[in-house]
Amino acid sequence: MASSSDPQGLVQPLSVGNVVSVGLRLYSDHFKQYMGVALVATLWILLPIVTIALIVGFFASVQDYYALLGLIIPAWLVLLAYCVGKYMADSAAIARLAFGELTQQPESTQQAKKFTSSRLWWFWVTSLLTSLIFGGVLTAFYLLVAVLFAVAFGAVGGLSVLQSAAPEAVFERIASSPGFLLTFGLGMLVVVVLFIAIFGWFSARFSIADVPLAIELDMDGARSVGRSWQLTKKSAWRIFLILFIAAMIAFVLQLLIQIVTSIISGVLVAIQPSGVSALYLLSITVSYIFAFMTSALFLPFWQTIKAALYYDLRSRREGLGLRLRG
């Protein structure tokens, strides 16, 4: 990480490529540690899924005791909320461990998980607030698009087109209207570009919403979201480029994993004797195992990228004299 020509190991604000490479190196150097945390985090997500499958299987086979559902369903919802909270807390622990390495203040896995677990419900608040923000932005975007299309539709005489009695005549008149088709095509292009720009910008601004909560003292869910907004100010498009590069790397790796999974599943199905379903069930099991491992594999990848990004943003905006190990 630190250059050999820099004996003190001081790191200046990172370039776009360096943020990704630092995250990847952190991941590779601490693969066993981070994967251990990621596997446990993913198991927390599987617990409510397995539980609801057992509940459904029980009532499907017994077909009785339905009165217990009034107790079982609320209990399962509490379990779901807790398990999702544990997943978010353990995921954030990876970012905390990575940031500790960047600042030469490493912690043990137990210490990091203890800190993030103590803020488990605040991670829920952070997730809820960001979800509400994105929901509000998307709703406003859809309303804006609807208004713009209505205006454009009326401007090219769309209302007169709709006055035709027969639906076939409506489509025929629309198809023969170059102005309408041109406006519609350009409008769709503008909508797509606007959607990517708006969603990308907001994604960048809240890309590290949970990281301050995992690292900084005197922090809660709302303040962590605000901290992300503060640190990413004037850096949204640079962050978007970092996330895009990381997404492309993840896409290529996921594609390779999917190809391997499909080949293995295809071979198992192909060699299956007629009327025998054991290998078919095995191929499904293999697919689920690969999906589980893929989820766990990419969790530390994104968390180390976020830790490197958080470090970079703090060093740019607050001038942190952080050090990286060589």
Number of domains: 1
- Number of beta-strand segments: 0
**What distance lies between the first and last C-alpha atoms, to the nearest angstrom?**
5 Å
Strand content: under 5%
Number of helices: 12
Major sheet description = none
Molecular structure report:
- This protein is mainly alpha-helical and 326 residues long.
- The protein has one domain.
- Helix content is 79%, strand content 0%.
- The protein is built from twelve helices and no strands.
- Mean pLDDT is 82; it is low at 1-11 and 322-326.
- It comes from Drouetiella hepatica Uher 2000/2452.
- Residues 186-299 form the Glycerophosphoryl diester phosphodiesterase membrane domain.
- Keywords: Membrane, Transmembrane, Transmembrane helix.
Summarize the structure.
The protein has twelve helices and no strands. It has helices at residues 16-29, 31-62, 69-102, 109-117, 120-155, 158-161, 167-175, 178-205, 211-215, 221-231, 236-270, 278-318.
Defining traits:
326 residues; 12 helices; 79% helix
Mind sketching the topology for me?
Layout: H1 16-29, H2 31-62, H3 69-102, H4 109-117, H5 120-155, H6 158-161, H7 167-175, H8 178-205, H9 211-215, H10 221-231, H11 236-270, H12 278-318
Helix pairs in contact: 1-11, 1-12, 2-3, 2-12, 3-4, 3-5, 3-12, 5-8, 5-10, 8-11, 11-12
InterPro entries: GlyceroP-diester-Pdiesterase_M
Protein name: Glycerophosphoryl diester phosphodiesterase membrane domain-containing protein
Keywords: Membrane, Transmembrane, Transmembrane helix
